[in-house]
């Protein structure tokens, strides 16, 4: 036999059970093309102590840093059919070398096939010969129903648990163990009075562990093949589970062909029975099944057990609703098409879509979304008051819509929704007029006995909230820092309960004041709306709709976006954009009179009347601002500012440098890296700090300075790096200190 090599490595005494490190023993391991053997020493005459046969189902786990931190050893785990070797070494290179070598041997082995896989191939090859197929079923009990437990999976699974490490948080063990446990759950389902929860658990496990899906399909096929009592309650339990599985996920192609063969055989052997009806339903479902995101709900499973359709309520604008029957495969596109036919909207040029909506959130469903998935996911969510909503998705042609059609009513209702949610920026007086039109539409002419809807259904109440908050003092939470300071001072002087009661009392008082102000503002607003409602006497509903839409359509952005909002998905949380106020999200926002471009940071609305902060380029009359890497600020020509831009006004010259650029005032000195020149001075920039040169005094900078008044005294020496010359002297610059050269005495210069 050829050997990879010898290595001295430690091994745990018992496979699969963690033991104290004092019980580690040292062995000499040898890796052959077929097995992993270990000896007591490296002598040729040494007897082999043990061996682990390597097949394609074996697996090896890479060493983990966590294990090294805990034990001081690098751990290599090798899983076999019956044994598990845990090998320990002090060197990482040695551990990696062994892992790669063992994995190479495993990869060289031919894939192993279980007896069930071989029999499935035989049935597929002899599908046209029914007698041969029946003989295969008769001679192989592993293909037929059994009451005995299953000790090994029907399909091959790698030894070890590394296949589903991502699902360990849910408590799953090795796939082989989960497959055996799953068969026990199936047998338990036979005697359950209510099998729905157990079926849902099986579906959830298969949805989490994809490799188990084919295994469970084979197990259910086995239990529905030649049962002791065909058509009994115990037998139908398996057919009902198979029905739910066929509506949740499809098996692999090989198992799918085996399942279809089983269904055809069942229909042939048990015609006109309940079993035959389930088999036909499953066969039809497999042709339409899409991958589900969620397991079917208990309500959906209960419907599937009876092979029925699931009722679903679809709402549309105008407080209307339509009840529909859907299957586990119905998509949002199919529901939209059916609704357009029912509501006579098929000839419309506008685009309609199905939404999931609640009081705070709405999102259009994609065409391929499975409605049953949406129903199930919303049942599990925290928000219970949600609904499926059918409405206009894209406004293509709103001018040619007939005034007496349902589509025109959709336009009116969606325009009102946009107004109530604050998506359309209009004045408060116009909002009151629209609210009066809405009252005229709902109740007709004014009457003191007419039912009044809530103000929230007529007017965007966030305007009143903002008004009350702006006029009142900050709430108690805004003064938390001061409260915390006082609490720290008096924490030992006052009882804790007394202090907390005081804070709660103050909060309650402020809340009560806020509610009182809101009631007052709401009453005033409703009074103003009613006054305008009285003016609309004898106005017809059709005229109300036309007038309302004509006012809303005056906004230039009407119909350009979805209900006046733009939300694009990003990495973070998408929030609704309200044109009437500033918001934060990762979207591009634009309304009349503003220009905002998205940046990496927080996008804010640009008000031309004031300066703002964002990563955009802003320009108005009399200003020039260019974006830099830092914070862009509005440039006011009347004062100096800080940014990375080039600013120029009459009488000044400023060029940007790497540091902070400041406005140059000719009347005073400043600091920046610019070139400054005024009458009577010459300054050139250097690497150091540039200072203004005053002719009346000397200064220090890295510049060349020259003026007529710089007096040179031959009686004393001076220091600078310049060349000085006047009548009767000669000075040459050098690298060191330049001194005056006196012909009458010796001096030092270059």
UniProtKB/TrEMBL annotation:
Segments of this protein annotated with the region Disordered: 559-750
One GO CC annotation: cytoskeleton
Domain spans labelled MyTH4: 145-305
Basic and acidic residues compositional bias, start-end: 582-594, 611-623, 640-652, 669-681, 698-729
Transmembrane feature ranges: none
Source organism, top-level taxon: Eukaryota
FERM domain mapped to chain residues: 310-750
InterPro entries in the record: Actin_motor_Myosin (IPR051724), Band_41_domain (IPR019749), FERM/acyl-CoA-bd_prot_sf (IPR014352), FERM_2 (IPR035963), FERM_central (IPR019748), FERM_domain (IPR000299), MyTH4_dom (IPR000857), MyTH4_dom_sf (IPR038185)
Protein name: Pleckstrin homology, MyTH4 and FERM domain containing H3
Species whose genome carries this gene: Leptobrachium leishanense (Leishan spiny toad)
Gene: PLEKHH3
